[in-house]
Specification:
Length: 256
């Protein structure tokens, strides 16, 4: 039996007195495509931000490829992880954000090359070749010398995907990557994600409101509500066949 590449074990997260996640247990397997759906404020983004080390769990454990992400061993005891440990464990995780997070003063090619060179210490020539390849893959090979301000929102999001792919992650996280886009640009971004899901071996976790898309590409769908995983299963089971009243109410908003 394949071991999970990511495990959440009784993970809680609170911001001051507000409990955002209430005991999340979740296994994500190598190559598995997981979609997380649920109403705004249910904790969806917090789940993946903790995996990217952008938010620290209040309690519980997150295990990545056999290593505790937020805790490390020191003198035989588990203690809070330091920055070096966090950086090491999250090295195999890539994330595409809602608002692109591109460096405005760098060309598209430079945006893709920066992290592998400066974070991973990779050879510049090899990184450049891989960056050009990935930009070509997302349909932007002719834009590599342009700056972010010269691109549409959909193009910027595709650059963000190419940049994440250049890092060769084992796990790719997508945080509602189409929600900030004009409706006519959504399709081009979803098509790139569909290509990645079909052709890449990495695990993927997508926080999304695109139900048809989740049904199309996800091996597993989680319905999160008020910080609890209320339902999980295959995309067909969760999106089309569930008898969960709260989930059916949520899904009715997306159907004519």
């Amino acid at each position: 039996m394949t071991e999970p590449i990511v495990q959440y074990k009784k993970v809680h997260k609170a911001f001051d007195d507000v409990k955002v996640l209430k005991g999340i247990d979740l296994d994500i397997y190598p190559s598995e495509k997981v979609a997380i759906i649920g109403p705004s404020g249910s904790g969806k983004t917090t789940i993946i931000r903790m995996l990217m080390t952008l938010e620290e769990p209040t309690s519980g454990d997150i295990i990545v490829d056999g290593t505790n992400l937020w805790k490390m061993e020191k003198k035989g005891e588990l203690v809070r992880a330091n920055e070096k440990h966090l950086r090491s464990v999250r090295g195999d995780i890539g994330m595409v954000f809602q608002h692109f997070n591109l460096f405005p003063h760098m060309t598209i090619l430079e945006n893709c090359m920066t992290a592998p060179i400066h974070v991973k210490g990779e050879d510049k020539k090899e990184v450049e070749e891989r960056s050009i390849e990935m930009l070509g893959r997302v349909g932007l090979g002719d834009k590599m010398n342009n700056y972010p301000s010269q691109l549409s929102g959909g193009q910027k999001q595709r650059v963000a995907m190419a940049r994440a792919l250049v890092m060769r992650p084992k796990i790719m996280l997508f945080d509602e990557v189409t929600s900030a886009l004009d409706p006519e640009l959504v399709g081009e971004v979803l098509e790139v994600i569909r290509d990645i899901a079909k052709n890449d071996d990495m695990a993927m976790v997508l926080v999304t409101h695109e139900m048809d898309f989740a049904l199309d590409i996800a091996d597993k769908v989680l319905f999160l509500d008020e910080g609890v995983i209320e339902e999980q299963g295959s995309a067909q089971e969760v999106i089309n066949d569930s008898q969960n009243k709260r989930l059916r109410e949520f899904l009715s908003r997306f159907r004519n």
